[in-house]
Amino acid sequence: MTVRIFEDLASLSSAAANVFVKEAREAVSRSGKFTFALAGGNTPKALYHLLAEEPHLSAVEWDKVHAFFGDERWVPASDPSSNEGMAREALLSHVPIPARQVYPMYQGGSVEQACADYEEKLRLIMPSGLDLVLLGMGDDGHTASLFPGIPELRETTKWVVPTLSPKGVRQRVTLTFPALEMARSVLFLVSGADKHPELEKAVGGDPALWPPSGVLAHRSANASFFVDRSAAGSTVHDLG
Ligand code: 6PG
Q1: Other C-beta atoms lying within 10 Å of the C-beta of residue 233
Q2: Ranges under pLDDT 50 in the chain
Q3: Ligand 1 center to residue 85 CA distance, Å?
Q4: Is the bond into 55 cis (omega within 30 degrees of 0)?
Q5: Per-residue model confidence (pLDDT) at position 23
Q6: What is the pTM assigned to this prediction?
């Protein structure tokens, strides 16, 4: 696991955009496609805007990209809380990714059926794991919609499950640890002083203190935290 500290969200997002382009190029030359999962929330918006503009826009072979979601609030894309709606507005509607290669989680109807359908797509398209997973971290240390203390943290076989959020839209759908930790690369984007206490635990060496983001980071083969100085504070340092 590595930790890189940036002055601010803008420089963090610029570095993340360069990682995205590098991972996409390597994946396409390796397998002919690039599969990644979009993060929800606010932090990744700056990254998404950068990817939708030059020089990154033409640096990615978007026709070979498959965009999944790490999690979703159980609302239609038109809802202001929708991660899909945010990603379409900030990135997906501005890049030439084929519509059939964007895989929304929300499909209405039964949330259990939607999880089963999504898992089927994931296992078909990326049986050995996503190339890149983009993730944020909440101020309680959650990532995707894997919240502290929920039973779904103990899931060992399913890749997509429903969860309940303690804040905001209660019904969620999320990739699980088994699905996330299979990824070739996991990139956490963490910004803001409110994230410091849980970030310190997540990157620390005591497993007993790890919030879900820390559990995933330590289980993953290649996890990185890109954090700004506000989130790092005086006790989180560059690592790896
Ligand atoms: C979501 C995200 C969630 C998010 C964190 C951080 O659906 O909300 O998947 O895990 O990444 O809550 O959100 P901010 O970037 O808005 O702080």
Answers
A1: 15
A2: none
A3: 14
A4: yes
A5: 98
A6: 0.98
